[in-house]
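Running this now, will post back.
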Amino acid sequence: MVKIYRESFAFFLSSLPALLLFAAVIEGLLWFLQPRSESSVTFVALTIVAYYIHRHFLFGERLTLTMKHGTAEGAPPMKLGWFILLSAALLLVPIGVALVIVVQFPDPQGRGVMVLVLFPIYLLVLSLFGTALPATVARDGTYRLSQGLRATFKTMWRLLLGPGVIGLMLLAATIVSTQAMEALGTPEESLILLAYYTVLRTLGFLTTIFAVAVLCAMYRRTRPGPYVEKGPGPIGQTPA
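Update: finished.
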């Protein structure tokens, strides 16, 4: 398990220029477009980043400033469609369940309950079905959902100890730093604030990297033979 987290942090550091650039693009779009719902702009972009991260941990492909990969030996061609749809489903189900629970509470209590309820439900859904994400990236026709379900509890505690802990630390740092920015009276239109959001977005990728590393490792455990203990790198031929 420690190896997974060590490889995750090493990948974050090696990919930092690309992640910083991508975070700047996302925050720049939000800055200029000022959409009512940030998720409408960010979901597909962040899912594409998650897809590239999956390919690193499955096939050893690097994340570069151009966001382009040379397809590793034994890796299938890149196809995003099913991955985006599955990612949306894994996110929308927890949101739907949380909303059903939240409507029982009046505002402003509802917003707090939403946060408290959403993350445990998302953790459960990701633990149950998350190994289907790397299977989709690998285009593995031999993968069965029952294989991932058998690893639910092992997946859950790895997600808690890795991305869960990192996420809580980043959340605490965000709250403290946001309060500091407000205390300093930083104008909403300041470029300093744009740079601040870009840094937060970049650090947020660390949680995603840890989560993807765990899911890819648990997916490998569902594969027979030599795939179980291998780290980032080709996992063998997969069906097209």
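Residues 2-227 form one domain. More later if anyone needs it.
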